[in-house]
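[Q] Does anyone have a clean structure-token version of this?
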Amino acid sequence: MKSETITIQSRFGVVVHNTLLSNDSTKLLILLPGRGYTVDYPLFYYLRRTALHQGYDVLSVQYGFQIANMEMDAAKTPLLVPDVLDTIQPVLGRGYEQVCIAGKSLGTPIAAEVARSLLPRDVALLMLTPIGGALQGLGQLPALAVIGTADALYSSEEVAAYTGHPSIRWHVFDGLNHSLEVPDDWQASLRVLPEIIGVCAAFLR
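[A] Here you go.
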């Protein structure tokens, strides 16, 4: 396995170094973090390892505002998508046959917008705690949304609205919060982590 650095000049005024782990695969997983949930947090750490085991190349993206230690607000949000596109375009030029984009929270609407820009390429979405109507307007893009019932953004009505959808499905974990953890119980959080990763791994297959 090779490790490469994909460097961009971010619109947040800093140079961002993103990491591509490569198996010389025909499949690529792109990790888009949350506001404070970086690609080094547990979900992404184990998702990356799982994807590599399944033969994916994995591109772990960082945001310029994270590197610059800037506060993120709505006015700066439009800068994120072009930064992400600048990061992934040279990687996509390697001719991947399949692309999956995994977003966490803030990363989910970015993932959706980026995925739409890649059509008609074979692309799928793994949405961890989606926000802001990230699943709307996806058309026939295959997507798995993962959320917990203790997440303040969880809506049983929204989940039910996708029942029977041909390409979008939800997996709901009872009692997990926005970090997909059991509140105030680190041991229970560790116990449920393999199940979460297992659900994601099955989608990647």
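[Q] Thanks! Anything notable?
[A] The chain has a mean pLDDT of 94.
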